[in-house]
Amino acid sequence: MIYNGRIEDFIPLLDFLANTFGNGIEFTLHDFSKPGKTIIAIRNGQITGRQVGDSISNFTLRAIHESVKDSEDLSELKSKILEKKDLKTGDLLIMGEDGTIKGLLCVNIPLPGLREMSRLLEGLLGTAPPSEPAPPAPPASYDVGSFEGLAESIIDGVLAESDVSPDRMTPEERIMVIERIHNKGVFQLKGVVGLVSRKLNVSEATVYRYLGYLS
To answer: Which residues, in sequence order, are CB contacts of 195 under 8 Å at separation 6+?
Structure first.
């Protein structure tokens, strides 16, 4: 918009907007005659953490330059809505008759609060779309190698509890070891008999015979 007066004249408009729409929207007034400290008034600055005396952001400055470049009439009102991360921003350019940008009025609306309010209203009005059921979990797939590692870990743990090494164990001691392994359910895993036979230095037939004693 074209305005040849002072940018400070827009401060009452900022107050009006803030009083009308509450503290959930940020209103900022920039004066480009004050480089490095363009913000001369701000309402609800807690939304972005900015304050009077701060400078315009590089993002907004770049957007302004793009707006001027794309505008055939620099004296025409130029309002550009920009999407930022979780923030919707409206920028109103304040321009002089010579086409120079004198100031900027920014409106910043945080989107998370709007989304939450929208979900709340949809729930109250019963207009929320039905939630899609969660996709079924894929069937469990197991790595045989992981089972072997688990079985070996359990067997080694049982052997570590014995004071006698497998080479020096009596048949009775080996049966006791196999019983403890059996009680942990390890023999339900494929290939464990061969693994136990190697750990105890006996044949698989011997392991099967010892298991028969436990039944």
So the answer is: 148, 151, 152, 155
pTM of structure? 0.49
Host domain of residue 85: 7-116+122-129+136-144
Asked if residue 1 belongs to a domain, the reply is: no
Residues 25 and 93 in one domain: yes
- Report the range of poorest mean pLDDT among 2-6, 14-18, 87-91, 175-179: 87-91
- Beta-carbon contacts of 129 under 8 Å, excluding residues fewer than 6 positions away, are 122
Q: How many domains does the chain have?
A: 2
49-83 exposure pattern, b = at least 16 Cβ within 10 A, e = fewer: ebeeebebeeebeebbeebeeebeebeeebebebe
pLDDT digit string, tens, across residues 162-192:
888 998 999 999 999 999 888 877 776 667 8
Q: Do 175 and 140 belong together in one domain?
A: no
Q: Do both 96 and 32 map to the same domain?
A: yes
**Hey, what are 8's tokens?**
């400070």
Do 140 and 62 belong together in one domain? yes
Here the tokens at position 107 are 């409106």
Token reading at 23: 């503290």
Give yes or no for a contact between 157 and 184, defined as CB atoms under 8 angstroms apart: no
**Does residue 2 lie within any of the structural domains?**
no
The Cα 41–Cα 213 span in angstroms is: 90
